[in-house]
TrEMBL record:
GO terms for cellular component: cytoplasm. Coiled coil: none annotated. It comes from Pediococcus pentosaceus. Gene3D superfamilies: P-loop containing nucleotide triphosphate hydrolases. Keywords: ATP-binding, Cytoplasm, Kinase, Metal-binding, Nucleotide biosynthesis, Nucleotide-binding, Transferase, Zinc. This is Adenylate kinase. Catalyzes the reversible transfer of the terminal phosphate group between ATP and AMP. Plays an important role in cellular energy homeostasis and in adenine nucleotide metabolism. One of its GO terms (biological process) is AMP salvage. It is found in: Cytoplasm. Zn(2+) binds at C133, C136, C153, C156.
């Protein structure tokens, strides 16, 4: 099997985290999540890490040039010589073009972009189904984990529940709309480069992974 240099894409709630875990276990490649490498770069006070911290401390978005620099520093490390999986990068076309340049400089070109596609309406149901018992804080989900008796907490027997702001359908719809807007141009970009593999994320987690695994083994 050739080296797997991957980008993993998917909207919030598409189950990317679960699939990422399985890919790294089976294919033994480092998982490069932008959140993790930012924290690492800041902790080690690398040049780019120090730069990023200035923006993060002010609650501002880190500019592409800094993000790209942190990703390139990470991709230059020896543990990714035999493959890697990027998660959370690129987030826009400029970053995608920068990634093309850095992977060609480092001679680690992308093998494939795996996009876990789930119908946005299903995502809203998945993400906004969570609710919490007002009395004891037990967490439920209207689809995957409802109380045994409707309207009654399994743990303490109380009947009042609430939803966190970021679990409310309106908030979730907005989050998905923002992410769709970001992802759509990237999907077209990688489609044109014949690197994109769309995986149906509407099925059972294990079936999603079987599809992912089939694609990766074929590469």
């Amino acid at each position: 099997m050739s080296k797997l240099n991957l980008v993993l894409m998917g909207l919030p709630g598409a189950g990317k985290g679960t699939q990422a875990q399985r890919i790294i276990e089976d294919f033994k490649i480092p998982h490069i999540s932008t959140g993790d490498i930012f924290r690492e770069a800041m902790k080690n006070e690398t040049e780019m890490g120090v730069e990023a911290k200035k923006f993060i401390d002010k609650g501002e978005l880190v500019p592409d040039s800094v993000t790209n620099g942190i990703v390139e520093d990470r991709l230059a490390m020896d543990d990714v010589n035999d493959g890697f999986m990027l998660d959370g990068f690129p987030r826009n076309i400029d970053q995608a073009k920068a990634l093309d340049e850095m992977t060609s400089r480092l001679n680690k070109p992308l093998t494939a972009v795996i996009n876990i596609h789930v119908d946005p309406e299903v995502l809203v149901e998945r993400l906004s189904g969570r609710f919490i018992c007002k009395n004891c804080g037990a967490t439920y989900h209207k689809l995957y984990n409802p109380p045994k008796v409707e309207g009654t907490c399994d743990v303490c027997g109380h009947h009042e529940f609430f939803q966190r702001e970021d679990d409310k359908p309106e908030t979730v719809k907005n989050r998905i709309a923002v992410n769709t807007k970001l992802n759509t141009p990237l999907i077209s970009y990688y489609e044109e480069k014949h690197l994109l593999y769309n995986i149906n994320g509407d099925q059972d987690i294990n079936d999603v992974y079987s599809e992912v695994k089939k694609v990766l083994e074929a590469l």
